[in-house]
Specification:
The protein has about 500 residues and is an alpha/beta fold. Helix 2 (about 100-115) packs parallel to helix 3 (about 130-155), helix 4 packs parallel to helix 7 (about 250-265) and helix 9 (about 310-320) crosses helix 16 (about 475-505). It contains 16 helices and 14 strands. It has one domain (about 25-505): 3-Layer(aba) Sandwich (Rossmann fold), CATH 3.40.50. Residues about 1-35, about 45-55, about 65-80 and about 340-355 have low confidence and may be disordered. The protein starts with 10 loop residues before the first strand and ends with a helix. Strands 4, 5, 6, 7, 8, 11, 12, 13 and 14 form a nine-stranded mixed beta sheet that branches. Strands 1-2-3 form a three-stranded antiparallel beta sheet. Strands 9-10 form a two-stranded antiparallel ribbon. It comes from Heterodermia speciosa. One of its GO terms (biological process) is ergosterol biosynthetic process. Belongs to the short-chain dehydrogenases/reductases (SDR) family. ERG27 subfamily. InterPro entries: Ergosterol_Biosynth_ERG27, NAD(P)-bd_dom_sf.
Length: about 500
C-alpha cells in the first residue's frame, strides 16, 4: 500500500543523532524504538560565492519532450557537492488526488536535505514516470512544494535544489535499457536510487469476508489483510519480435526485474559515486506483506501466485537480505557490474569497495490510491488505519510523508552510521509510529531471517506488530533462508543474462 503525503513531523539527522520534533536521541536506540520508485541522488557543491542571483522557482514546469528533458530546473551537474536522486512512481489504481509514496519521498528528501546538509551541498532530483503528462503534473507539485518551503525559510531554494524528469516503463526491458543509456551519457555519477515504483495487480476486495474480519479483528486484519483479491497470471507485452519468447510476469517485472536490470545497467555511475566521500546507495522499497507463504522458488515470477504483489515483495526481501552473504557473492558480483567490462576482470577486488550499498526498507501502511476505492470507502479506510494505530499498531503511518521517513533516513544518514548498524547483518528497515503519530525507524522481523539474520532472542520492542504464526528463528530456518537466497540470485542472474542475449544488449 502507498500513503497520502501530509507534511507534518520532520525527522532530522545530524551526525550520529536522530532528532524527532526537536528531541535529540541516540541514533541506534531511536532506531530500535520503531520503524520508520526510483530515486537517484547526487551531492555536489553549492553555487560559488559571487554567483548571480538564482532564478525564481517556476510556477509551471517547462515544456517537455523525450529528447530534451534533462535538466528541468537549473543546470548544475558538476562538482563534488551535488547529491543526485532518482525516484520512480507507482502506478496509481485510482483517480483520487492523493499523494503517493514516490512524491512524498521527494518532498521529505528536499525538506531534510535543506534542514540537515550544509549550504555548500546541492540536491539534484530525478523523477521517473510512465508518461509525459504524469511527469508534468508531478513537476508542478514539486515546484509548488519548493515555493512553499522557500517562503517558510525566506530563501530561494533554486540555488540548492534542481529537478529533472524522465519517462520509463519498467515492464518494458527496452524502455529500461533506453533510460539507463540516457542517464549514463548525461550524468557524471549516481549517489542514491530509490526503487519505489510497483504494481499491485489488485482487482477487488472480498467484501463479505472484510465485513466480518475487520470488526472482529480490526488491528490485525487492517495490518495483514486477508480479503484483497489480485489478478493471477498477468504477463507483459512482448519484449521482442520472436515467437518463442518466454512470458514475463507483469507484477514481477514491474516490482523486481525491471529494477534489477536498471541497477545492473547503471553500475558504472555508482562506481563514479564512490569517489565522492560516500558509496552509492540502492534503496529497495519493500512491504510488510512479503509473507513466506506467498513465494515459491519454482514460480519466482508469481504467475500462479494468489498474490503476485506479495510474492514479489518476498523475493525482494530474500535478495537484499542475503546479498552480503558469501554464498551469494559470485552472483551479486556479476549483478553489480563485474561483467560489464571484460578488460577489468583483474580489478574485481579493487572494485569491491566501489560497489553501491543495497538497503531494504518499507514505509509501513500508508493510505494512498494504491488500492482502487471510491472516495467514501477511501475515507473509511483512512479512519480504520488511524483506529488500528490507536489500538497499538506500529505500522500504520497513514500519511505517505511519515512513511517516507525510513527511506529518506537511509539516503541521508552518514555511511559510518549505517555500516555500524548493519555490521552484524542486514536488516529490513521500516517506518513506524507511536499511537500519537510520532514516527521513527525500526528493524522489521522477516520470516526465516529474524531482524539481523542471526539466531537470537528478540526484545519486546522488536516483536511489536509481529504477524501471527511467526516464531523465533532457528538455525535450520536461517540456513534454509540463505540457501533460498543463493538460488534466487542464481535464477535471477540467469534470467538477466538470457534476456540480454534475446534483446541483443
Amino acid at each position: 500500500m502507498g500513503a497520502a503525503g501530509q507534511t507534518t513531523v520532520a525527522l532530522l539527522l545530524r551526525g550520529s543523532k536522530l532528532y524527532i520534533r526537536g528531541m535529540a536521541r541516540n541514533a541506534p536506540s531511536s532506531l530500535e524504538r520503531g520503524r520508520f520508485g526510483l530515486i537517484l541522488i547526487r551531492v555536489g557543491p553549492g553555487p560559488e560565492s559571487g554567483h548571480s542571483r538564482p532564478d525564481p522557482i517556476p510556477e509551471n514546469p517547462p515544456n517537455q519532450s523525450t529528447s530534451n528533458n534533462r535538466i528541468r530546473h537549473g543546470q548544475r551537474l558538476h562538482g563534488k557537492g551535488l547529491l543526485i536522486c532518482l525516484v520512480d512512481w507507482c502506478k496509481q489504481a485510482s483517480s483520487l488526488p492523493i499523494d503517493g509514496l514516490g512524491y512524498s519521498i521527494c518532498c521529505r528528501l528536499i525538506d531534510e536535505f535543506i534542514s540537515t546538509q550544509p549550504p555548500s551541498l546541492t540536491l539534484h532530483l530525478i523523477i521517473t514516470t510512465r508518461d509525459e503528462r504524469k511527469s508534468h503534473d508531478t513537476l508542478s507539485k514539486l515546484f509548488a512544494h519548493l515555493r512553499q518551503k522557500s517562503r517558510e525559510l525566506r530563501d530561494n531554494l533554486n540555488s540548492r535544489v534542481t529537478i529533472q524528469s524522465e519517462q520509463v516503463d519498467l515492464t518494458s526491458l527496452q524502455s529500461v535499457h533506453a533510460l539507463s543509456t540516457h542517464l549514463r551519457t548525461t550524468l557524471p555519477r549516481l549517489d542514491v536510487v530509490f526503487l519505489n515504483a510497483g504494481y499491485g495487480g489488485l482487482t477487488g476486495i472480498k467484501w463479505l469476508r472484510a465485513a466480518w474480519v475487520i470488526p472482529t479483528d480490526l488491528r490485525y486484519e487492517i495490518t495483514y489483510p486477508s480479503y484483497n483479491v489480485s489478478a493471477v497470471g498477468l504477463t507483459t507485452k512482448s519484449q521482442t519480435s520472436s515467437r518463442d519468447e518466454p512470458a514475463l510476469g507483469t507484477v514481477f517485472t514491474s516490482n523486481v526485474f525491471g529494477h534489477y536490470i536498471l541497477v545492473h545497467l547503471l553500475c558504472p555511475l555508482f562506481t563514479s559515486a564512490s569517489t565522492a566521500q560516500r558509496s552509492g546507495r540502492v534503496i529497495w522499497i519493500s512491504s510488510i506483506e512479503g509473507y513466506a507463504s506467498t513465494f515459491t522458488l519454482g514460480d519466482m515470477q508469481g504467475l500462479a501466485a494468489e498474490s503476485a504483489y506479495k510474492s514479489s515483495k518476498r523475493l525482494t526481501d530474500i535478495l537484499i537480505l542475503t546479498s552480503s552473504r558469501l554464498s551469494t557473492r559470485q552472483y551479486v558480483s556479476k549483478f553489480l557490474g563485474d561483467d560489464v567490462s571484460k578488460s577489468q576482470k583483474d580489478e574485481i577486488d579493487k572494485r569491491e569497495g566501489c560497489r553501491p550499498n543495497m538497503y531494504l526498507v518499507h514505509p509501513g501502511i500508508c493510505a494512498t490510491s494504491f488500492v482502487p476505492l471510491p472516495f467514501l470507502l477511501y475515507c473509511c479506510m483512512v479512519f480504520t488505519f488511524y483506529l488500528a494505530r490507536w489500538l497499538g499498531s506500529p505500522w500504520h503511518t497513514v500519511s505517505a510523508y511519515k512513511g517516507a521517513a525510513a527511506p529518506v533516513w537511509l539516503a541521508l544518514a552518514p555511511q559510518k552510521e549505517l555500516d555500524e548498524l548493519e555490521a552484524d547483518g542486514k536488516s529490513k528497515w521500516g517506518s513506524c509510529v507511536s499511537r500519537g503519530g510520532e514516527e521513527s525507524v525500526m528493524r522489521t522481523e522477516v520470516e526465516g531471517w529474524g531482524v539481523r539474520g542471526q539466531v537470537e532472542a528478540l526484545a519486546a520492542k522488536e516483536l511489536r506488530g509481529r504477524r501471527r504464526g511467526v516464531h523465533e528463528l532457528s538455525m535450520e530456518e536461517q540456513e534454509r533462508f540463505e540457501e533460498l537466497g543463493r538460488e534466487c540470485w542464481q535464477q535471477l542472474e540467469g534470467l538477466r543474462t538470457e534476456w540480454a542475449k534475446r534483446i541483443g544488449w
